[in-house]
Design goal:
Layout: H1 2-69, H2 77-89
């Protein structure tokens, strides 16, 4: 009878330890998968933003370079507005543009 109790106790310890290991590593695995999924989604959002706003950045750099080579543009609001309006035509994702003077 005593041997039977001992074997039941050893079996309970074995099952309990396997169950505890499964719960611990299952939780770690779940957390790792959730972290990977979140990283993938954030990466996808960053990639979409880069694709969407990359042309805007390029156009702004072009306008800044163009204005640097033609300094008279910054003093002629009508010409500057025309250049900005033309650059907006190439960027359907942009609804408005503003120039902020340093003064």
């Amino acid at each position: 009878m005593r041997a039977r109790r001992l074997s039941i106790l050893m079996m309970a310890i074995a099952v309990g330890s396997v169950l505890a290991i499964g719960i611990i590593y299952g939780g770690r695995n779940l957390a790792m998968q959730l972290r990977d999924r979140a990283d993938t989604r954030v990466g996808a959002v960053n990639e979409r933003l880069d694709r969407h706003l990359g042309p805007v950045e390029s156009q702004a750099a072009f306008l800044a370079d163009w204005a640097g080579h033609h300094p008279d543009v910054l003093e002629n609001p009508a010409r500057l507005a025309e250049a900005m309006r033309m650059s907006l035509a190439a960027l359907p994702q942009v609804a408005a543009m503003a120039y902020v003077a340093p003064d």
